[in-house]
Specification:
17 strands; alpha+beta; seven-stranded antiparallel β-sheet
Length: 350
């Protein structure tokens, strides 16, 4: 049996692969798009995912909906992107005044008796996406047949249900642009080999000695569990497609994502959530996380230079098994979508 190996560097530098990731790989999965606590009945929130503008709504009876933020008449966005939801009973296109309910149905079109052909409102509702609430977050799927969300989150459901399903509020949300391919940043956050060295005064103090690292795996995710100095377990989940969830034993939760922007740029997005009745110094907590993320930023942007020059990754360490697990999933999806020939052809050119 061949020894396990890392993904070849060309998968981090090929523009056709980057296109596949945006248009196919991402469509296999659900994406956390907002904190559930942000959106109340009768509210709408405009958000962005992979360059697409989306609308989240919660109708008056509490139904959660997601739509493309795009009027079906001429493609204009109904709302500008915003950090906070707005309360409204209807959505009005600023271009021609088409009016939609929070359920996405077309309520009225200006001068609708004068269209050149027969016009039926029920044919012109907003284009919807799959949308679900799970744990503290609202999730959407860009594809029509994604992995069931219950399977994507099965490891969290199994290992931390009392924390995941507790009432949580969003304390902070920040974004940063990293000058590296998203897979470099994602690999790095799954890399337990570097923590004691690169984060000796930050994350290593939360995770503790390497000898106490315990692992869990399933088809779609992985887990590092370590004893926390304050008691209980500190849990770090790696989720497809590019997501990480850190859960403290006191119920605090941090979610990290590395969203592709361009071949050598990605967006780091960090959300901090805490129990509703938990008193937390959100600024201090955020600064602590920003410190270790800054340490990682130097590493991943340096690694990008190496990948850009086509180096061959070295042998995996036993503390890098979470990287290998995710990369095996990535390989399988790439082969399923593109065929094994894409890997063989590039290997032959090397």
């Amino acid at each position: 049996m061949a020894a396990p190996s890392f993904l070849p560097s060309w998968l981090y530098t090929d523009s056709a692969i980057a296109q596949w990731e945006q248009c196919s790989y991402a469509h296999h999965f659900w994406h956390p798009i907002a904190a559930a606590s942000q959106l109340l009945c009768g509210q709408v929130l405009a958000v962005e995912l992979l360059g697409r503008s989306l609308l989240l709504t919660r109708t008056g009876n509490g139904d959660l909906k997601a739509f493309y933020n795009c009027c079906p008449h001429r493609g204009v966005a109904l709302l500008e992107l915003q950090n906070q939801p707005r309360t409204c009973r209807k959505l009005v296109c600023p271009y021609h005044g088409w009016t939609f309910g929070l359920d996405g149905s077309l309520l009225a079109a200006a001068r609708e008796a004068s269209f050149e052909s027969s016009f039926h409102r029920e044919e012109w509702g907003l284009r919807s996406l799959l949308c679900q609430e799970d744990g503290p977050l609202i999730w959407v799927a860009l594809g029509e047949r994604p992995v069931p969300l219950s399977q994507q989150l099965e490891l969290i459901h199994r290992e931390a249900p009392h924390l995941w399903f507790a009432p949580l509020r969003q304390c902070s949300r920040i974004q940063q642009v990293l000058h590296c391919n998203w897979k470099i940043a994602h690999d790095n956050t799954l890399d337990d080999y570097h923590v004691a060295i690169a984060h000796s005064m930050t994350l290593h103090r939360e995770q503790g000695p390497v000898r106490d690292y315990c692992y869990g795996f399933n088809d779609w995710s992985n887990l590092l569990s370590t004893p926390h100095p304050a008691g209980g377990a500190f849990l770090t989940f790696g989720l497809a497609p590019w997501t990480h969830v850190l859960i403290w034993p006191d119920g605090r939760l941090a979610m990290l994502e590395f969203l592709p922007l361009e071949l050598q740029r990605c967006r780091l997005q960090l959300r901090l959530l805490a129990p509703q009745d938990y008193v937390v110094d959100a600024d201090l907590w955020l600064q602590q996380l920003i410190q270790f993320l800054a340490e990682d930023r130097c590493l991943v942007e340096s690694a990008q230079i190496g990948y850009s020059h086509g180096f061959d990754p070295g042998p995996p360490h036993r503390l890098e098994q979470r990287i290998l697990q995710w990369q095996d999933l990535y390989r399988r999806l790439l082969i399923a979508d593109q065929g094994e020939a894409v890997l063989r052809s590039h290997a032959a050119m090397r």
